[in-house]
Amino acid sequence: MHRITMQKVLPTGQTLDRLRQDRILNGAFTTGDPLKLMRLFGITEQTVMRYVGTVYPERTAKLPT
Question: Where on the tree of life does the source sit, at the highest rank (predicted)?
């Protein structure tokens, strides 16, 4: 489907980028598996860790200050 056609069927205020971000966030919540998310969405390690860290902050390493 073309991008213009998709924009017409999205709810007001919703964008394709927001929809994709929501799917990635949902995937992070569901699986919590960074490698699976990287493969599925074609995102970088830094990006996937932001999503997983948002959903599961306890899984991120905290360096002592």
Answer: Bacteria
Q: What is the mean pLDDT of the chain?
A: 85
Burial class (CB in 10 A: 0-12, 13-18, 19+), 7: exposed
Q: Is residue 65 part of a domain?
A: no
**Domains of the chain: total:** 1
Place of tokens 């999503």: 51
Would 38 be classed as within a structural domain? yes
Show the domain range for 19: 3-56
Record the pTM: 0.74
Cα(62)–Cα(52) distance, integer angstroms: 14
CB distance 44 to 38 below 8 Å: yes
